[in-house]
Amino acid sequence: MCSSRWGLNLPPKRLCNPYLRKPRIRCRKSSAGTPRENRQMHVAQKLFRTTAFAALALSVFSTAVQAACTQNRAIYRDRDDAYTLTFRPEQPNDLKMTPAPTNEFTITANDKPEFKLSGMVIWPEEGVARPYALLTFNCKGDGSNPEDLDDCSIWQSVIYALKEGAEAEVLPKAEEPAAQAILLPDLVTALDGYDFGAAKPEKPLQWEVFRFQGCTPDQE
Predict the structure, then answer these.
(1) The pTM is what?
(2) How confident is the model at residue 217 (pLDDT cuts 50, 70, 90)?
């Protein structure tokens, strides 16, 4: 018992001297989560590592396939996966072009089988050191008539091969290793201004870069 200044006896639970009170202990919240939170974090980290490894493996596999593929068997697609650009293993030169094309390819709309553009890459014999490409649609006859070729030609320009870092180079020839990506400058504008009639795709082309997707089997 202790006495107050008024002479009253106070019970032990009420201390007269405030300095004798027990200090309050404040516990700092631990940074570690609950066991359930820790398990979730471990699963998330494991999933991230697995996804990163899978992406790296896929990138390495795609690069290896692209390096083993020749240009005349390469397949490309635009960013929206709406159009496919396929190089042809053979060079039939159906339009009787002079000089003969070094590469031939087609561009098709994945949602419209009737839409098919025929393309060719030509290396001029003199003067220009870069190849140019020509795209035609629904040519009449064999295309040997210059007037018919003018009527069915919808795009003509230099064609570029792109590497990582957007470095532009000339397109590889038929038997050379395939390019990582193909650039067809101003192709979107050319297609928008052409009347394809019933063959017009529902989704217009929006990108002029086609990226490597695969390789057609080598014919033995």
Answers:
(1) 0.66
(2) confident
